[in-house]
Amino acid sequence: MDYFTRFKRFLLEGFMPVTKATAILAGIISILCFAFPPLASLFVLNPANFLFRPWAIFTYPLVDQVSFSLLFAVIWLWFIGGSLERTWGSYKYLRFQLAVTALPGVLMLLITRLGVVSVPFFSLWLPLVGTTWAWAEIYPDRELLFMGIVPVKARWIGWLEVILTFISYSHIHILLGLISISGITMFYIFRNAGRHRWGHGPAFKKKMAEWQHRRKKEKFKIVK
């Protein structure tokens, strides 16, 4: 068995290929950027040169300082991202990850155009805010042991992630703090997507079921 086939099997095991690929890429690219610093400019979202590197709107989470922060981010993504991907399916999960990555980046570019603040944007923890919030909303009563001792429910972990991220970025500028947690809005957009479109949602399905039921009754009605 060749290495590519083994790697493909590894990605597909556990039904979380997007999560595994993201975690692996974040680890590899962060290490490469640490060893060769000029490489970081290819992936970091820098408003000053965004027009020359538009792909950075999606690649900035793949760069982080090689530290325990990166290690914990990869482990956390593997845990909650894998759980979400198995629940939603890889296609919807991939779209969600692209959305929670792009939204903060786009907002960052917008406030830069307004002349508010302009700083390089990177770190896997930024899209993890939205991912953690989605996981906490779906599994609010799931418990984890904080520091391996104190049980904490997922709903509070989601709030803790939001508060810590907001504080860490708002010391630069309050708008930057708000941008850093903007990914949580994507969960509600994805959750409600399709509910109010024609041909989708429980209301439409209920009406269709009632119409089909009436048709069957008319079809088999006995004429006296």
Describe this structure in words.
- This protein is mainly α and 224 residues long.
- It has two domains: 3-193, Rhomboid-like (Rhomboid-like fold); 200-224.
- The chain contains ten helices and two strands; from the N terminus they run ααααααββαααα.
- Strands 1-2 form a two-stranded antiparallel sheet.
- α5 crosses α6 (125-138), α5 runs antiparallel to α8 and α6 (125-138) packs across α9.
- The radius of gyration is 22 Å and the shape is globular.
- Mean pLDDT is 85; it is low at 196-204.
Overall geometric form: globular
CATH class of the largest domain: Mainly Alpha
Q: Spans with pLDDT under 50 lasting ≥5 residues?
A: 196-204
**What is the tally of helical segments?**
10
CATH architectural arrangement of the largest domain: Up-down Bundle
What structural class should be given to the helix and strand makeup? Answer: mainly alpha
Say what oligomer this is.
single chain
Distance between the termini: 73 Å
**Sheet of most strands:** 2 strands, antiparallel
Which range best describes the helical content: under 10%, 10-25%, 25-40%, 40-55%, 55-70% or over 70%? 55-70%
Percent strand equals: under 5%
Count of distinct structural domains = 2
The SSE string, one letter per element, is HHHHHHEEHHHH
